[in-house]
Amino acid sequence: MYTTSQPDPVRLEIFKNLYQFIAEQMGIVLQNTAASVNIKERLDFSCAIFDAAGLLVANAPHIPVHLGSMSESVRSLINDHGDTIKPGNVYLSNNPYNGGTHLPDVTAITPVFLEIDQNLPTPLFFVASRGHQADIGGITPGSMPPHSQNVEEEGILFDNFLLVEQGEFRENAVREVLLNHPYPARNPNQNIADFKAQIAANERGVQELSKMVSQYGLRTVQDYMKFVQDNAEEAVRKAIDVLKDGSFIYEMDSGAKIQVQVTINRENRSAEIDFTGTSPQLNSNFNAPKAVTQAAVLYVFRTLVNDSIPLNAGCLKPLEIIIPEGCMLNPTYPAAVVAGNVETSQTVVDALYGALGVMAASQGTMNNFTFGNARYQYYETICGGSGAGINFHGTDAVQTHMTNSRLTDPEVLETRYPVLLESFSLRPDSGGKGQYSGGNGVIRRLRFLEPMTANVLSGHRAVPPFGLNGGEAGQVGYNWVERADGVKEDLDSTATVEMNPGDVLTIATPGGGGFGNS
Fold first, then answer.
1. Which residues neighbour 329 within 8 Å (Cβ) at sequence distance 6 or greater?
2. Taking the mean position of all CA atoms in its chain, how far away is CA 167?
3. Using CA atoms, how far apart are residues 415 and 351, in angstroms rounded to an integer?
4. Mean pLDDT for each consecutive 10-residue tract of the chain (518 residues)?
5. Largest CB tally within 10 Å, which of 196, 214, 259, 287?
6. Does residue 61 have a cis bond before it (omega within 30 degrees)?
7. Sign of CA dihedral 50, 54, 55, 56
């Protein structure tokens, strides 16, 4: 007998999978209809569904740094435009101070009004898709500038921009925003094509939720959204039950440091995660928006749960996260943030695992590599070694933690861009030794066939990924250019370099740390 106060265990499992399935369906539509390599080939996107309050219900297994932060974007839309949201509207947001991660990650949010609620002034649900744009303007092609000092240099900021108004796509308005900027978008047609793909993905989510409501009834669908969140909350509390207090300080290549103290409250079965002591807001772009920091915490605690649960708002309930305003993990406008999302988020995750004593550091970087000119813009992240843990070895050549994207196939890369992938290989002995060894990094060599500006945004080129409990640290990464005339130029963790035909850029990625004495 179904009652609203207690979930039926079988139904709970069914609904949990149904919600995730809707997000997966959205992802398939987005991948199939997108124009850019970033979304179509690298799968650098995420889709999720949210309840009427904008709280995450379920997501597909896409990009962790997107998923833990998208709820903030949806809630900011409700706060800013709650009274004016109409059926058929779609909103666009990438504001890092309002739930965004960095400017290339643009979120399309669609409120869900169903026929049964014509009299209700507010949406019953929200669906959202976030995709990494190949270029959103900014001072370098690919919108991942290594040396930006404010957010305007990183590209165009959308703050709950009305993209579709009651079913009408506002193409002229969005094109105007893309072009009317000190550093405009380089390929607005591609941006618009990807935005349309995100609208289509969201529309699939709306259709599937509508089908679900007509099959099970609105009350049941809403009740089980709450039950799925409650179930995730209990799963995280169970994981917290076996944890101990801990603290960790982790330094980055720039000298900035992440400091975290985890305090377990046995009585409440909750945890306090306090980042007090972390470096103040930086002049560089390694500041992580608050939503990114929360996403990293959410990710870590979700990975400690053995049960199969969707990442959702329930996971956050047992966690009190303290992030002092004005520190590099909660910067204020107009701080530059492009590396905070991709680099600092990884440092936060490793620092948390270090504080909890469960896992050595992984490569701790996404090895962000962009290149381009007026005609081409390309972005990729490069895998490395993962850290070893209490009873497992690290993994070689894997995307770790806050990223989960693919690399573009060599055939697609070389067909779409004037480059040659010379080699892509494992980097032997780069993982730290230990009772359990860290995974190895990789070496990736790319030869340029036309003049291009290349950019590298990376970490752990100076500070090695730590080992735990007597395990050795992983090897640091290394970036360099070999000019066509044989001259070699070493590059820093963050670098912009002009590439000429015949020049080769090589990126050697870090290994993971080892765990335990060997």
1. 258, 275, 278, 287, 288, 290, 292, 293, 323, 344, 348
2. 29
3. 40
4. 74 95 96 91 90 93 76 94 93 93 95 75 92 94 93 97 97 98 96 98 98 96 97 95 96 98 97 98 96 92 87 93 98 95 96 97 96 92 97 97 91 96 98 98 98 96 98 98 98 97 98 95
5. 287
6. no
7. positive
